[in-house]
Amino acid sequence: MSAQPETITERSLTRAEAEERAALVDVQRYDVDIDMTGLLEGSTWRSVSTITFTCEPGSSTFVDAVGEVTDVTLNGLSVDLAQVREGRVHLTDLAGHNELVVAMTQDDTDRAAGIHRTVDAADGLVYVWTSFEADDARRAFACFDQPDLKAPHAFTVLAPAAWTITSNRAPSSVEESGATTRTWRFPDTPPLSTYVVVVNGGPFHEIRERRGPHDLGLFCRQSLKEFLERDAPQLLTLTEQGLAFFGETFGQPFGQERYDQVFVPDMGGAMENWGCVTWGDMMIPRSTPTPADEAELASVLLHEMAHMWFGDLVTMRWWDDLWLNEAFASFASAWAAAEATEHTDAWAAFAVDSEPIGYRQDAGPASHGIRGDVPDVGQAMANFDAITYLKGQAVLRQLSVLVGDEAFTAGLQAYFAEHAWGNTVLADLVGALEEASGRDLSGWTGAWLDRAGTDTIALDLAAEDGPALVVTAPDGGEPRPHRLSVRSFAPAPDGGLRVVATTTVETEGSRTGLPCLPDVGEGGLHLVNADDLTFARSRTDAASLSTLLGSAAALPATIDHAVAAGTVLDLLFTGELGPDRTLDVLLDLLAADPAPSLVEALLDHARVVATLWTPAEAVGTAGARVAEVAAALAERPGLRTPALRTLAMVSADPRWDVLLEDAAVDDVPLGWRILRTRAAAGRHDADDLVSLTERDPDPEAWVSALAVEAALPEVEAKEAAFQRMVVDRDLPRSAGYSLFSGAFWRLDQADLVRPFADRYLDQVAALDGGAMLNVLGLIRGFFPSVGDAALLERASALATDPAVVPAVRTNLAIGTDQLRRYLVARGLLEG
Q1: Which residues are in the Peptidase M1 membrane alanine aminopeptidase domain (predicted)?
Q2: Quick check: pTM over 0.85?
């Protein structure tokens, strides 16, 4: 048998190849033996994958296998390892029924590319997790790694004796297999795509509880068990509520009794593995959770759970329908949160917290149709963005409003019933909704899913034929249809605003009359897109805008506050409103006792406007304004923690020292924010840094300490931080990791950090697109917020360079557009 070539390369699967293979191959099952013992003290993962499949006799195809393939047999006969090249095992002269056995090893286990091994700095314990979307299962075991070749998977895992192994199902047996190892056997999964199977291992802390018909499990590393124990009641309740809601709403109970959620170190996000969701454990707060922490926990939990139906039970045929997976999960998460949990303001929170990100990307060079052309898997990675997730979520909500809740639910139930454990395309879902609603949606899907950009809906009160909504499309074409509401407010005797009427309308073409729109008088307001039912840039009349800018806090309802905030943030983004006026509105809303569900998002927006949009010479004044409002908010029950954390991030003024230091005794994350801001302001105290590091129960406290040093106005400190974050890329995803960008790229240190911006571009342009969850976090979370025209020109060129992988190009385009808008708002660049 000839030797395998030493250089292991890999190719991205194309859509044409996937279609050809799917037409040829029918996978019967996978039986995968995994040896994790080499990961206890080393980096080696071993697998033997037995694939049973049928095809046309005499045909040829290939199996995906990225690793060191050591042995291949097909129907009992050895296959020459020369047939292994570019991450594929090439097979010829296949029989009608085949059994392929591929043994391989994988040593690339330290960069979150499919398999990730972590040593906990707190106690030296080793944990291993897998995450295979979109095509990383091939790094762990040989397989047909495409979504429409679904099959049952049965895993057998040899692991260190002290480890617990989690997979998609409960183990059928666990047996001692030596003095130091155990063998875990897992029964067949349902027919699943390769990207949603999972094997995790480590000495996990486990919590199990029966809730209704389900056996619920929570897992985390030992050093975080006190925090998981604290949050377990909330997590278990949300899980119980979500499984009940989705099972009833979709007409399909979850497909097994057991449902596990595994919190793992150094993972940037979460993954919807069927029956065994993995989360990055930075989602477990190391201090008392704030309302926003709790809302985000619910949102992520319900998003990943929704995938059990939309993505796992029914799976897209190819990655061009990725948006269906992700947008639907995001939509269903807010739907379930609002209907089945205590987070009843989920849609308002979406309008002010997340949806603005979708509007921003859709207005820039990285805009694309929700349903895009995906010629290969590499391009699919570029579509894990705000268009797919957030615009897609809003558009699905618009669809549900258009067809009506009852028809929408009936259509979903019919869809899941017909396509369970299969693969679909968009037309399958649309057909089910058309049948349930009696509406022709063909024009709707083309208008909403295939065209990029955001329509603008403006209220016109000056026309001779009466009030109307004027809809314009960004490409100058026919506007999309919109179903939305305009809420009219008149001045109230107490100085507030009272609702006069809510006018619901379905637009058609570029102009739709509003004959019933009431006259609200002087000081009144018409709020366009009230309730945030459609995805559109909303503009009201001049008098209403004046009232909105001066009296947004007088609006009576949480959703009204959210829509008002979203409107002014969009006006800032498009250059129609300056940062000072935008900050006025945000601070007025914060001063008016808003719902707790909005407070942290509003505080964060205010901080960003004050520190990133504002001209450098005015940042101090803007930050002081935010600090005053935050200090006042800290006196209100339930808001103290987020308010003081914002205060600590925008001001190092000694007048706040006593207030902040007293609170930081019981709030370690607040302590890190205090030290970071003081470091940037020349008030660094090395002893305080050491003391807080020792006091912090977070195993990754050293990352938070490094973020403090990254804020120092010293080139040596910047150099050390840049090396770890961007060059070595070895910082675990943690609370400290999320603070790095604001610590490093500071406007008051622009001259110091500007050279690092070019070096940043050098590094990210060379990324290979692997380890999606972690690498994309680096690009999105650490893009420079300082720069000049020369940097923009270079970044824009890289964003269109075909030598840069698609996912990196897309995110460079997003970051470049945002930086350009910052520079315009700061007066450093012409608009």
Answers
A1: 238-443
A2: yes
